[in-house]
Each structure stands twice: as structure tokens, then as C-alpha cells.
Amino acid sequence: AEQQSTLVSQQREILEQQRKMHEQMDLIKIQHGMLFDTVKQMSFQSLHEDIQHYFEAQLQGLQNQARNHLQKSYSVHKVEVDAKVIDVGESLLDCGLCESDEFCNFQKTPSQCEKCTLCPAGFFQMSECSANADRICQDRDECIESPNICGERIKCLNTPDDPALI
């Protein structure tokens, strides 16, 4: 009877220890769930940032391609206009003698001397003014030249004078 009592007592202790272990396992399951949710959230946030950076880089590349295409189109158009002017066969002397800061504008009838364009703020000079062609100015893209000009996490949009915040 005494041994039986000792065995029952030991079994109760074992059952109590098992109950405590189950409680601890439940706590571990809850902590594991919370940790798993945090990892999922961090992974999603990191993935979201990676995707955002990828699309921003792609957008920047497309903007650069469009800008280069427009610049080439403008240059080709200007060359074609100059070629048409030359084809007309008008003499450079039709304007008479232009001043050093003037060019002969063949697109006007009759041709006449005009002041060379001065590149405004936010633009840079691509070609000099000559006797038969005006100076060519190109918009300066401050968003590319100074990427942090608008601050962090703000889209920068180049405009003809200063960059604009979006």
C-alpha cells in the first residue's frame, strides 16, 4: 500500500510536469506564430522596396531614352531645316553684314539679321551662334544632375526652369 501510494504520488508529479510542459509548448507556439508573422511582414516590406527601386530605375531609364530621342529628333529636325534653307539657294549675303552677336534668319522673308538667343537659367548651350544659325539651348535636368535636390522619397520632375516636387 505504501509503495502504491508512492507510485500514485510520482504519477501525479509526472502529470503536473506534463501539464506545465504543455503550457510552455503553447507559449512557444504563440511566440513562434508572432515571430513568423514578423518575418513575413519584413520579407514583404523588403520585397516591396526592391520592386519599387526596380520600377523607379526602369522609369528613369525610359525617361533618359525619351529625352535622348527627343534631343536627337530636335537635332535632326534642325539639320533638315538648315538643309532646306541651303537648298533654296539664298545667298548668305542677303542679310548684309550681321553683327557678331547676330545671325542671318533665312526663315523670314526677306532674310534678316537677328540677335543670337541667350540660354536662360536652367538651360545649357549645345551649339554656338554662327552667321547662318542661332544658338541651340538644351534644358538642364537638375533631377538627374542632383538626385537629392527634392529630398528623399519625393519624385523629382524636371521642368523648363526649376525641378518640381511631386
UniProtKB/TrEMBL annotation:
Highest taxon above the source species: Eukaryota
PROSITE patterns attached to this UniProt entry: TNFR_NGFR_1, TNFR_NGFR_2
Mapped TNFR-Cys repeat ranges: 97-137
UniProt key word Glycoprotein: yes
Molecular function GO terms recorded: heparin binding
Domain TNFR-Cys: from-to ranges: 97-137
Keywords: Disulfide bond, Glycoprotein
Record protein name field: TNFR-Cys domain-containing protein
Organism: Chelydra serpentina (Snapping turtle)
Top-level taxonomy: Eukaryota, Metazoa, Chordata, Craniata, Vertebrata
